[in-house]
Amino acid sequence: METEGLEWLLVPVRQLVAWSAAGAMVFGGVVPYIPQYRDIRRTQNAEGFSTYVCLVLLVANILRILFWFGRRFESPLLWQSIIMIITMLLMLKLCTEVRVSNDLNIKRRSFADFDLNYFWHWSKFTDYVQCVLTFTGVTGYITYLWLDSSLFVETLGFLAVFTEAMLGVPQLYRNYQNRSTEGMSVKMVLMWTSGDTFKTVYFILNQAPLQFSICGLLQVFVDIAILLQVYLYSSYPQKPTSHTAHPASTKAL
């Protein structure tokens, strides 16, 4: 009887924990960009944020959604991609408006110019939307044609999560080049590590596709490598860096 009463109590607790974990997965990745967005809007300066981060995350999450059509995975992971795409589009819109307003004399560039020298450096937000829609349409059509191929579907899933997993590598390489971690927030790296660890454990426990777990572990290893750089380079004199990295501009949870 006591066991039944205890079980009655544990069921809603387990459900609450499951919902909390799912909510953390859906919204955890966009949390670092909220203060970033507010800061850009307040200062009207977007120099500390690289819009290539938006490009990488848009590509990764669009591919992940397409992967879902070939191999269904946890709904929170699907919603995480949708929320991240919306967030990156909002970041792009703000950064484009701020950059154009600050550089009134700059020559206007558009997606329709098809100039690779100015790729992802356009003057209007609508150009970025056109590019994203074009990429989505092309990759969506290819996915539709090859949806019956398990090799293609599994490769698509790997590319989706591997692209996102590589977001920390530029920071790792920049630190290596400068032999310094000056300008980088150690607290933010600790947030990356804890977030990626939680995400990887979530993948494993919920039996997400193997690609998710492998690339999650890769993200954790990159985070640990950056933390090791903090320890190693602390014994070297800190020198000025020509490109100061914004702590939230290189990675997502």
| Mean of pLDDT | 81
What oligomeric arrangement do these chains adopt? single chain
The ordered string of helix (H) and strand (E) elements is HHHHHHHHH
Rg, nearest Å: 20 Å
Q: Which regions are unreliable across 5 or more consecutive residues at pLDDT < 50? A: 240-250
Global structural class = mainly alpha
Q: Quickly count the helices.
A: 9
Record field, number of beta strands: 0
Share of β-strand residues:
under 5%
Task: State the end-to-end distance.
Answer: 44 Å
User: Main sheet, how many strands, which sense, barrel?
Assistant: none
Share in helix:
55-70%
Net shape: globular
Describe the SSE topology:
Blueprint: H1 2-28, H2 33-43, H3 51-70, H4 75-102, H5 125-145, H6 150-165, H7 169-178, H8 186-205, H9 210-233
Helix pairs in contact: 1-4, 2-4, 3-4, 3-5, 3-6, 6-9, 7-9, 8-9
Key structural traits:
globular, 253 residues, mainly alpha
Kindly describe this structure.
This protein is mainly α and 253 residues long. It has nine helices and no strands. The chain has helices at residues 2-28, 33-43, 51-70, 75-102, 125-145, 150-165, 169-178, 186-205, 210-233. Helix 3 runs antiparallel to helix 6 (150-165) and helix 6 packs parallel to helix 9. It is globular, with a radius of gyration of 20 Å. It starts with a helix and ends in a 20-residue tail after the last helix. Mean pLDDT is 81; it is low at 240-250.
Write a compact overview of the structure shown.
The chain is mainly α and 253 residues long. The chain has helices at residues 2-28, 33-43, 51-70, 75-102, 125-145, 150-165, 169-178, 186-205, 210-233.
